[in-house]
Amino acid sequence: MTTKLDTEAAHRQERNATLIAALQDEARNEGESGWELDVINDAERGRWIAALGAEAIGELTYRFVDGRIVLLSTWVSPAYRNHRVATELIARVLDEIRESGKKITIICPVVGEFIARKTQYLDLIDKVHPGSGAYPKHHSSEDQNADNKINAFQADLT
């Protein structure tokens, strides 16, 4: 029996994996998006919104904790994924944070992956409280091959 929390966690991991895969695709294709995105700080609700006209197509949620900005979660509407929305949203948010002089704690793995690829933002990470999403662990090809073998073996058992 799965609980609601287990289901929500699985959906969150699925969304994060989708956005991280999109970041990897975007890293290969560094072209600009063809859209004029507005990035709006909705401080009342603790989120930056990526808007295309009047439509909110993505968001990055956050909280202030002890003078730091804790980046919690990134979301992009499925219709706009793989079009550099997450990349542009995260970059513009990090640029705004840099201007404020604040440090960040990263909970969102998508933001952690973005910073791993765009190392000019590493200095924003709070050294004492980097967060669980900071400094993602990248597996070597040997580790990935071992993981693939384990997954194949588990699939054979089901």
Write the layout of secondary structure elements.
Layout: H1 4-28, E1 38-42, E2 47-52, E3 55-65, E4 68-76, H2 85-100, E5 104-106, H3 109-117, H4 141-157
Parallel strand pairs: 4-5
Antiparallel strand pairs: 1-2, 2-3, 3-4
Helix pairs in contact: 1-3
Task: Characterise the protein shown here.
The chain has 158 residues and is of the alpha+beta class. The protein contains four helices and five strands. The protein has helices at residues 4-28, 85-100, 109-117, 141-157; strands at 38-42, 47-52, 55-65, 68-76, 104-106. It has a five-stranded mixed β-sheet with strand order 1-2-3-4-5. α1 packs parallel to α3. The radius of gyration is 17 Å and the shape is globular. It starts with a helix and ends with a helix. The mean pLDDT is 82.
